[in-house]
Design a protein that fits this description.
This protein is α/β, with parallel strands linked by helices. The protein has one domain: Rossmann fold (3-Layer(aba) Sandwich), CATH 3.40.50. It has nine helices and 15 strands. The protein has an eleven-stranded mixed β-sheet, sandwiched between helices. A hairpin with a 5-residue loop joins strand 6 (63-65) and strand 7.
Amino acid sequence: MTTIKVYYLTNRNETGSDEQPAFGDDFHQKGPHYLRLGSAEVAPPAEPTAEYRVRSVYLAPEAIAAEDGTPRRKPKLGSREIFDELRQTMRHGAADLIVLIHGYAADFRTALERAAELKHRYAQVGKPLEAIVFCWPADGTMIPLLSYYRDRDDAKGSGIAIARAFLKLLSYFGELGPRRFCRRGLHLVAHSMGNYALRHALQAAISQGPGKVLPRIFQNIFLMAADEDNDALELDHKLARLPELAEAVHVYYSASDQALVISDRTKTNPDRLGSTGPRTLSNLPHKISLIDCRWVDDTRPIEHARHQYYRRRQEVIEDVQAVLRGLPPDQIGNRDYIADKRCFRIRAT
């Protein structure tokens, strides 16, 4: 069976070796800001409802310091190897790049599998994709309350590392210039608690240059089933400045998302952006589009809790594909415009 190649950046602790890489559910031994990069081969499922499965993992070797701890004159950077390979792949395949920030309770291998699934499902004829995932140290377990709060702390603590990853991408592709980069599009997908991690990455980026306009890195940012406060797009200390990073921001939400209902009611969180959409429409930037998925959020198995529609409902996948093709929000089929909500609602088919 043909496998799907994806790339990763992670600030998880190393539990394996360069030859047999593995990562745990804590921050890296050198600190939460420290990044390792690599790639993985993932097998697609034989059945539509089955999951993707990692077959092999590669970790790019890195040698920044000599054995005595002194800096090397010519350090070997894993980021350079991976970004060079990714650039060549994107150029030869005329592919855009999906950058994924995964959600709660996803271990390292699950994060790789989610990236492969999005690369596979979001791709379309004439619009191939590559994918890279930022793997922050979520527990990968569903122990009530304990795992959730640990993951939330880890998502917050990963903000600096995610901001570093974004800046590495920007710096690398900026060095190439538009001709060598071939003007490929970069798109960010944040799912569930990945949106909370994104908030702290944004704040870390802002702190690097207070008062400055943020660089436009992405063509599209997709906030999928966001486990984030529904006032986040209003407040400067949350996600209000996120639109500076992209040409367009797309908020996909569902009032019947059971995972977020639990987050709201049992974990003393405010109303969730992924349940209600933004708290208010006043002063909401026009580059933000709202997409109501209430009729297209149910997926199997039941444990998905109406929270996995971004990767498992064909109607949502086709909606994302239309966005990636560059269609304006009001020209995407299978949507109804709800004027008083300033949102588009996807129809079930």
